[in-house]
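> @MW can you paste both from yesterday?
MW: sure, first one:
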Amino acid sequence: MSLSSKTGEISISVSNKASKEAIDGLRAIWDTVMAGDPLEAYLKMMREAATRNDGKSQLGLVRIRYETGGAMRLKAEGDVVTIDLEYSK
């Protein structure tokens, strides 16, 4: 995480090891999270979460995108997946 006191920009990067199947699943969710307007994507995923029966909401990334309005990127290299967020006011 980094913060620029001059520009107010915040950058966050999170990396983790994951199996190929987990990365493929994340990519499928990512496509939904990043599709179209952030609010519409969030509302769509909230409606889907209300009907899930596996105990998972999968709202984390779409909520971050909507609430921050920041630029998000997903990178996968081998068994390491990284999500970057850049936000500025």
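MW: second:
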Amino acid sequence: MLLNKKGGLMMICISRLQEYTITPAQMNLLFKSRIIWRDIATWLRAYLVYVFLNSDPELKQAVIDNLNSLPKAFGNVLRIYFGDVAADEYTVLLSNYIKILTSLTDAIKNGDTNAIDEYTNQLYQNINERVNFLSTVNPFWEKNTVSNFINNYTKMTIDEIYTFSNKNYKRNIDLFKGILTYADSMGDYIADGLLKYLTYSSREPRIPE
């Protein structure tokens, strides 16, 4: 069952669903595509705690392992819809995005301005590549909309890193709450684009195992 925005996926009109039979496995994939940005925000938050609050070193590897698992999970969703080549390409791009964010976090912690500038440039280059990829592979992901979502999410995340660095924890908490809310909106848009592709595309998706 599709839920409204507060409960899950944004409401999709019944007439569209009638044009394509949505299986439970396909609905599960749509849900996974929806929560990817919230998962990134949550595990990156844990990484910030490790870096800036000098947490137990064992936490770092556990957090990195979970962060590194997310691109593959989302890539496997894309694999069902767009094939292996597209899925593998985007998995690499998203993996690099997460690695750059963690490297930027380390640079900010160390006050390394040259590294901060370099990683920031790499980050926005990566975003441009991902925006072009997503808007090309699926016509229901409009380029400007995707660009605004990912750029705004990234700017909020960078602000979150700096507030941790500056020990402005009240502002930091507010930013994190805002990121989670924004991640839900991004997830709704991504999942809705997949559902539209599933409904209207002449290409038959693979059947999830």
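> thanks! The chain has one domain: 24-200.
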